[in-house]
Amino acid sequence: xxxxxxxxxxxxxIDEELICAVCRDVFVEPVTLPCGHNYCEECVSQLKKSxxxxxxxRSRQAHYTCPLCLAPCAAGLRLNxxxxxxxxxxxxxxxxxxxxxCSVCKGQQKAEAEKSxxxxxxxxxxxxxxxxxxxxxxxxxxxxxxxxxxxxxCKKHGKELELYCKSDSTALCVFCMIPAESGHLxxxxxxxxxxxxxxxxxxxxxxxxxxxxxxxxxxTSHMKLDQTASNSKNSIEQQRQSFLHFLQKVKLFIDIxxxxxxxxxxxxxxxxxxxxxxxxxxxxxxxxxxxxxxxxFNNAVANxxxxxxxxxxxxxxxxxxxxxxxxxxxxxxxxxxxSAFQKGLRGKIPVLRPLHNVFQVEExxxxxxTAHAQLKISRSHxxxxxxxxxxxxxxxxxxxxxxxxxxxxxxxxxxxxxxEVTVRGLPTWALGLALNSISREPPGCKLGSNExxxxxxxxxxxxxxxxxxxxxxxxxxxxxxxxKIGLFLDVESGILAFxxxxxxxxxxxxxxxxxxxxxPAFCPRFHIDVEYVADKMQIQNGTIK
Length: 545
Hints:
alpha+beta; Herpes Virus-1; Jelly Rolls; 3 domains; 9 helices; 19% strand; E3 ubiquitin-protein ligase Midline-1-like; immunity; Znf_B-box; zinc-finger; zinc
């Protein structure tokens, strides 16, 4: 310790006893242990916490040791504050009411600074200046008398910056102009810093205008951005409201159409019944006329009276039923009226024809080149079955190596598509879409387990569906065993929906964003721990009637 520093310490009556052995700083609210050593109250609390950690209700029985003499001290013992030591510290801190405070001292009452370091930009009290006086690392630091603003001092000489080099745009002190120090300033225009005050003020004004212009530009950009976001939100909301309004109209229209066509079909049933009754009456009248004529001719033949035979043969009321074309023409007339009525029932509802066309079953063919080696593809390329033995011997880069997958031949990059797949009898299966770039090898080849495929799988043993895409997994139970699944794809809207095609019920819908063409994907054996079955996964190619 330097003699100056020691004298100051001696004057104040302060020595190493002011330093806490735990935090190595001036005491804050010192307390005394039974062994006589002093520590900050907070430091002792930390020692207690370390000793009682994990003891629970037995924490009061724990002991901690004094860091200096290792004497034990009960954690539950209440320690007294060292008032005398605290007063000495207060005297040290209040040596003077004015002046620069130490930047390092803790608490609200900080000691007066002994020196300020221009290099560090901090001020230090008598205690905290010690490292700068004793440590070689700080030998090159420039110490000056305490000052609030070290930025006004030369970092090399610790003197006030009074000069200005126009060539370097640098502030200098008078010591910087000493010949031994000013070699690099030869030929430079150096003036007193007060002489360039107006020039620098004007330069600051120019920079200030630029800053304000940029701030105004930023504020304008914020306003434009907020306005754009507001307009975008309003536009989205208008589109949402318009779309919901349109859907409400569609729902209302469908309800009206349903009621109207229900009534029409009811009327058609009545008309059909009436037409059938009328046709039946005509046939019965024809039958009665023929039976009456038959009876009359039988009686005439049985009667030996020639006059009766003449009267029967001359009866013109039976001429029309004796015509050879009478029965065939009448029956044809009746059947034609029934046929015309039935033909009128076969037509589709014209206004719903576009919706009907959307759900035309797409023709999907399986691509054998992508099929797992144990998948048997039908000759029509519309059915697939998982086999115990290897069916396909040749290997290629497109073939799935572990998962029992096969892709469709054709891909979809636009439009709406619908196809149906029979899964009756399969204990576990998966259907969906996949990009052509999906991995053919584990771990990324299982449908739905990656970002390049979307799938709906089913497990009969769990009676459970599972919709999966990458990290998204959603499982749900069903109260029936699915037999036929319909898949609806709208590429532009990013919709992939799965239906129970037998009961026309939506099972799950993905909302996607397709960046490249997608292929229909099929897996007749999703979980490999189930038994092999002879049932096939059959694609329904054709039109829904």
